[in-house]
Amino acid sequence: MQPFFEIVARRLMEAGIWPKVKERMKITYHEPCQLSRYLELVGEVREVLEGIEGLEVVEPDAEQCGRWSTCCGGGRLEASHPELAERIGLRRAEELLETGASVQYWRAAKKIST
């Protein structure tokens, strides 16, 4: 089992294919803590996003991304403590809005077989 974006990143690099967007835009990315903290998968999505012509990837503060990305309140917390999960999710959305990016990319920690 591999995370989907890891497969996409590898295949794009192997083929030497990088997409482009028509209009330049800033994008920020939320790393699911389940992937960044426990599986240490932090670079693959950025590699793909940074390789897309016309996208500028902007980051929250250093302590809010990467291996110790701020939690978004999803996962098990959402099922057991929905009110707390909502507050945490709103805080994370505010952190990403502060980047000034016009697009926020949120990703679920789903896996597929290869």
Shape: globular
**First-last Cα distance:** 6 Å
What is the succession of H and E elements? EHEHHEHHEE
Total number of helical segments? 5
Number of domains: 1
Radius of gyration: 15 Å
Uncertain residue segments: 110-114
The count of DSSP E runs of length 2 or more, i.e. the number of strands, is 5
Structure characterization notes:
- The strands form 2 sheets. A 3-stranded parallel β-sheet has the order 3-2-4, with helices on both faces.
- The termini are close together.
- The protein has helices at 4-15, 33-38, 44-50, 76-80, 82-97; strands at 2-3, 20-30, 53-57, 103-106, 111-112.
- The chain is of the alpha/beta class.
- Helix 1 crosses helix 3 (44-50).
- The protein has one domain.
- The protein is globular, with a radius of gyration of 15 Å.
- It is 40% helix and 21% strand.
- It contains 5 helices and 5 strands.
What labels would you give this structure?
alpha/beta; three-stranded parallel β-sheet; 114 residues; 5 strands; disordered C terminus; globular
Topology:
Blueprint: E1 2-3, H1 4-15, E2 20-30, H2 33-38, H3 44-50, E3 53-57, H4 76-80, H5 82-97, E4 103-106, E5 111-112
Parallel strand pairs: 2-3, 2-4
Antiparallel strand pairs: 1-5
Can you give me a brief rundown of this structure?
The protein is of the alpha/beta class and 114 residues long.
